[in-house]
Write a structure and sequence with these properties.
By secondary structure, this protein is an all-alpha fold. The protein is built from 14 helices and 2 strands. Strand 1 and strand 2 form a beta hairpin.
């Protein structure tokens, strides 16, 4: 592979991409499509709590819901791979098995931890704990990968954490903390941050469809292996089957494809910041669909999250020009003069 593509975040890492010239972390031709993909996928995932809540009411457990989600999604992704004439066996032999392994371990673990924590822990506490993952991701970038951190990334994450705290504040007042739920919730942000960090590097070498299929295949294997031990609930009516299919295709196969496209280009921290659109979607659905009150805390919290996302995205607009100027050699006198030719 001959060129470079940015990881875009508070970091300056680069990854290879065939057929392009050297690029800087602020190159909009790579950053903005990936940013739109991350925002779109995260918005779809924001519908998951509403859909899962209805499936829980129909008697499906969290592992059963995840089993159907991943198994049906992998069928859709396999059909898409066959349509695109991708040799899946060749991909697996060429190292694609590592994506499957990542999905079967960290991917399945972070998903199970979050959804299991919601069973016994106050939703607001579980959400607040999970949404510390952008800060954890930033710390991993710095401490483990040794990536330099941009101050604006720190500012944006602080805004997002403040917004998440304000959104969950009403649920924290007077709420009781269940120890079992807390033990499920605490590892979730760390596991997800590691999952993002590894994916941001591993998926650089594969098309998005391969990344999505490999991760979901791994998760499907894990939850299928769990089924004989924890039991498997079947949807009981056509409406439940429709919800399961919707979860598998929308916030499932499509979202994971967008994830596999955007994470290698945005980097772990960049994706973690933009993915907080999911929390804004959850609040909007709660207000518009479920009739939950829009308190001042939630309104300000949502605005802080949106402001953090926009600040991080718009801070990249000036970077391409600065990078081009840095690469352009200065005249002998040390000053650059404008001419008709320039």
């Amino acid at each position: 592979m001959d060129g470079w593509v940015p990881t875009f975040a508070g970091t300056t890492g680069f990854c290879e991409l065939r057929g392009s010239e050297p690029m800087t972390p602020g190159d909009n031709t790579r950053v903005w499509p990936a940013a739109v993909a991350a925002l779109s996928g995260s918005t779809m995932v924001g519908f998951m709590p509403l859909l899962a809540r209805r499936l829980y009411a129909d008697g499906l457990s969290a592992p059963s819901m995840l089993f159907w989600r991943y198994d049906l999604a992998i069928v859709a992704l396999a059909v898409a791979a066959l349509f695109m004439q991708i040799d899946l066996r060749r991909v697996l032999r060429g190292g694609g098995w590592r994506i499957v392994l990542l999905g079967a371990t960290l991917g399945a673990a972070q998903t199970l931890c979050f959804w299991e924590s919601l069973k016994t822990l106050e939703t607001s506490i579980a959400v607040l704990l999970f949404y510390t993952y952008p800060a954890v991701t930033l710390a991993l970038d710095r401490l483990i990968v040794k990536q330099p951190i941009r101050p604006v990334a720190v500012l944006c994450i602080a805004m997002i954490l403040g917004g998440a705290a304000l959104i969950t504040l009403p649920g924290l007042r007077g709420g009781t903390i269940d120890l079992r739920g807390l033990l499920w919730a605490i590892p979730s942000p760390l596991i997800y941050s590691l999952y993002l960090a590894i994916n941001s590097r591993l998926l650089r070498h594969y098309p998005p469809l391969i990344g999505a299929g490999g991760l979901f295949l791994g998760m499907a294997i894990t939850f299928s292996a769990m089924a004989p031990f924890v039991g498997l609930d079947m949807p009981t009516n056509a409406a439940s089957w429709l919800l399961v299919l919707l979860i598998a295709l929308g916030p499932g196969a499509l979202t994971m494809t967008l994830f596999s496209y955007s994470v290698p280009k945005l980097g772990a921290t960049g994706f973690a910041i933009l993915a907080n659109a999911e929390l804004v979607t959850v609040v909007a659905i709660g207000t518009l669909v479920l009739g939950e009150a829009m308190t001042p805390e939630r309104a300000i919290g949502g605005l802080l999250i949106v402001a953090g996302i926009l600040t991080h995205a718009l801070s990249r607009r000036a970077a391409p020009q600065r990078s081009r100027d840095a690469r352009r050699p200065l005249p002998a006198g040390g000053a650059r003069w404008k001419t008709k030719a320039s």
